[in-house]
Amino acid sequence: MDDRVREHARTLVDWSARIEAGDDVVVQVEEGAHDLGVAVAEALGERGANLLSTYRSDELTRAYLRAHDGEFEANPGYELALYERADSVLILSGTNNTAGTADVAGERRQAYSKARRDIREARLDTDWVSTQHPTRAMAQQAGMAYEAYRDFVYDATLRDWEALAEEQAQLKEILDDGAEVRLVADGTDLTMSIEGRTAVNSAASVAYDSHNLPSGEVFTAPEATEGVVTFDVPMTIQGRRVRDAELTFEDGSVTDFAAAQGEAVLEDVLDTDEGARRLGELGVGMNRGVDRVTDNILFDEKMGGTVHLALGRAYDACLPAGESGNESAVHVDLITSMDEGSRLEVDGDIVQEDGRFRWE
Amino acid sequence: MDDRVREHARTLVDWSARIEAGDDVVVQVEEGAHDLGVAVAEALGERGANLLSTYRSDELTRAYLRAHDGEFEANPGYELALYERADSVLILSGTNNTAGTADVAGERRQAYSKARRDIREARLDTDWVSTQHPTRAMAQQAGMAYEAYRDFVYDATLRDWEALAEEQAQLKEILDDGAEVRLVADGTDLTMSIEGRTAVNSAASVAYDSHNLPSGEVFTAPEATEGVVTFDVPMTIQGRRVRDAELTFEDGSVTDFAAAQGEAVLEDVLDTDEGARRLGELGVGMNRGVDRVTDNILFDEKMGGTVHLALGRAYDACLPAGESGNESAVHVDLITSMDEGSRLEVDGDIVQEDGRFRWE
């Protein structure tokens, strides 16, 4: 076994999920993530935690969903009982085919998802962490050779998380104290209010309210957005390609939009509900191990030297207790690179310029 | 997908486990049983049952057990809750390496197994069925080419179970009414009492108290065994090879034993406890689809034209209500072929001769 698989597992178990002896841990193994599953089982054994592994495969899901009549029972009790009693859920992604459910009707998928809301909530109430084992299918999605893609994944995942958490704390403090953010880049000049909002220092650990490994971003919930933004990082949204999306905001809402490719998808997203026209998230990527776009949001949005904005739902963690932010059925991230000539300002002070933070 | 995989899945779901709409079904997928998992997911979708798949792999188990200090928590609550609420558990075996846990100490294994007794009992209280997807590792264990092994597995599994259940009912009736069984074969002349005992018509369905697919045997719980028996079908017991084991019984207990190979294993088994020297089961194989020995007890003991006897624990289903039969920590099956010159008699009447039942 590649030593990095073991290091990945230990990072997941110790840094990210903070597993302790006696914890009831569900490990969800996707069909291509077997090797990581073995390493995680070993790490859980070392910690004296309990292990129950579930199996995830788009091929099983597709077969089940297509064969079912679509009248799904709400929150089957045996599965709910499992997640209600679990302490941690470790999600080991690793598909062998990113198009594995391409022929499942969206309606069927949504009906299934809707019927499982309480199970999902129970899982989100645990110390859950989602990570990814590199597979050939994911390498293909990234347009990379397998060996090179593995290097990419481990460079992004096996960071000095403690050091990054400290660096990110600086940005969190600035955002927590600040009232207005301005983004300036090629095709972008946007201002938004972040007054009274709390930024999350997302350092790949449940101890930082962060549930992704890798992570490496600081995010908050903006409002009252004004101006224009161009997202030059290509994305796959709802299975369709979107390039160079451009949004114009007035009084917090999108009033105009365009895209070099995938404009119809953008329109679909914006028309979902009222909240889909407002921003739910401003995120600043700070993971320098993510050095290229791989068409995988888990990595892309964490890329150092990028900023992402999400249309739709805001995270409660960013809002004053009891207050809820932008509401929407969607949360769609769009990414812009902060290259030469770009600036990120908070209350008029430059925090990042030409893609480098002022402390770098 | 091979059509036989789908037929296997439907046989499992409909004939064996009798799954109905709304049933809470756990599907345990072993690493090499993915394709059968997909077919079972489809069949469960068609029936409108609920699906939760767990993952089984000796590689995960080995990593976990070796890393653990051996002080296992008893019956972790989240897993117990899952099985206590499940209606059915479908176990899809299919290993990629039959020696996958060869370097896990027996003690560690036993400690783990002991700590999970309530979970095991909860699983046995469901409508559980164990079946096997053909893998290359299992073909290798059988000394067969993969293609030929697949044919073997499906010939054994895709039977006309209803017809076999009817045929087996004849033998069940004879055994239920009978008082004494006599087995005569090369190196064998054995009598035992089955008075007051109930035979199980094991027809690969929970509707017949049968939890194996394939099945195809009728078994009961004998006592007061007298005589000699030679088991000419080679077996792997506790990972070691046993050939031509010979047992001498007096007054129900083994008084002498020998084997051409693996005599020490036989001795280990017999010395486990007092019950290990007595018989817990007399089983008559009636599955004509199993036409050869493949070193896999799931198939070997069902082979038409064989009889197996188990040292150790008896099944409650064979005993009058409230009565318990032979007690032991082990249940070790040994098989003898009923070839030319063999006879199975019940109360002096010939039921099978030269390997053929009187109704054949």
Automatic annotation (TrEMBL), chains A, B:
Keywords: Aminopeptidase, Hydrolase, Metal-binding, Metalloprotease, Protease
Superkingdom per UniProt: Archaea
InterPro entries: M29_Exopeptidase (IPR052170), M29_N-terminal (IPR035097), Peptidase_M29 (IPR000787)
A Pfam family per the record: Peptidase_M29
Transmembrane segments: none
Cofactor names: Mg(2+); Co(2+); Zn(2+)
Molecular function (Gene Ontology), one example: metal ion binding
One GO BP annotation of this record: proteolysis
Assigned protein family: Belongs to the peptidase M29 family.
Identification of the protein by name: Aminopeptidase
Species whose genome carries this gene: Haloarcula limicola
